[in-house]
Amino acid sequence: MQADAARLAATPRVSRLFRLQYEEAQQSWVLLYPEGMVRLNQSAGEIMKRCDGQLSVVQIVADLETAFNATGLERDVLGFLDIAREKRWIEG
Fold first, then answer.
1. Is the CB of residue 91 less than 8 Å from the CB of residue 15?
2. What pTM was estimated for this model as a whole?
């Protein structure tokens, strides 16, 4: 339970190794890095653009639930952020 509390209190930010931007040509959010680009799906882009190092995961989830008139997104957001950390897309 404490591990989940710590995960929810974290304030993730896009890693310094990447630059997040919206690519009109791709019609999606992308992560740019020296060797290439990662095209994000809509859900991943919405989460990543909120990873500014200021918002906690709890706040990110609340913002997404408000923006998309949804509930119960916590598990999906935590799952994505775990993957993003493994891929070194985010820090924090």
1. yes
2. 0.93
